[in-house]
Write a structure and sequence with these properties.
With about 180 residues, the chain is mainly α. It is built from 8 helices and no strands. Helix 7 crosses helix 8. One of its GO terms (molecular function) is sigma factor activity.
């Protein structure tokens, strides 16, 4: 089923289609929230709050922009509201490793992910968020522009500069980072 169709059906009163929307976005939103707040329990609570907020405000969504952008605007706002209340700066969540068969590969992958995580911690929050939205959540440049409320050109420039910055940092650090080039 198409997400836009599911949204229209929910706006017309279908709760079943809302379940479809939740299932479709649940892992993506959780990943984004966790990477911003860095706590599993808090991330789970925020995801629930986000879905409740989306449900009660879905009637306000007009198909002018993409549903992705509208949804992730709520996600980002909810996370930043939480962080402001906690008087914390957004932190980058640790990258969790994916299961691999051999123990040697697990160790190597864990080391690589830890080193990549160290690089990502050196980016500012906007650079990090743009990379997260583009490569983890697969949002388009237009959608990122809507979510972060910055001009499209700025999204492109910041994404390009972020990748260049990561390459420069990778070159300086050595180790596994040479693979990123």
């Amino acid at each position: 089923m198409d997400i836009e169709l599911a949204v229209k059906n929910v706006q017309s009163g279908s709760e079943t289609d809302y379940t479809y929307i939740m299932t479709y976005y649940e892992n993506k939103i959780y990943t984004t929230v966790f990477r911003l707040v860095c706590q599993h329990d808090t991330a789970q609570d925020l995801v629930q709050e986000i879905f409740i907020k989306v449900f009660y405000n879905l009637h306000k969504y007009k198909a002018v922009g993409s549903f992705n952008a509208w949804l992730y605007r709520i996600v980002v706002n909810q996370c930043y509201d939480y962080l402001r209340k906690q008087s914390k700066q957004p932190l980058h969540g640790e990258i969790e490793s994916i299961e691999i068969q051999s123990p040697e590969n697990k160790i190597l992958q864990k080391e690589q992910l830890q080193q990549l995580d160290q690089l990502l911690h050196q980016l500012d929050k906007t650079e990090y968020l743009i990379l997260l939205l583009r490569y983890i959540n697969e949002l388009s440049y237009d959608e990122i522009s809507e979510v972060l409320q910055i001009p499209l050109n700025e999204v492109r420039n910041k994404l390009h500069r972020s990748k260049c910055k990561l390459r420069q940092l990778a070159t300086k650090k050595g180790g596994y980072f040479h693979e990123m080039q």
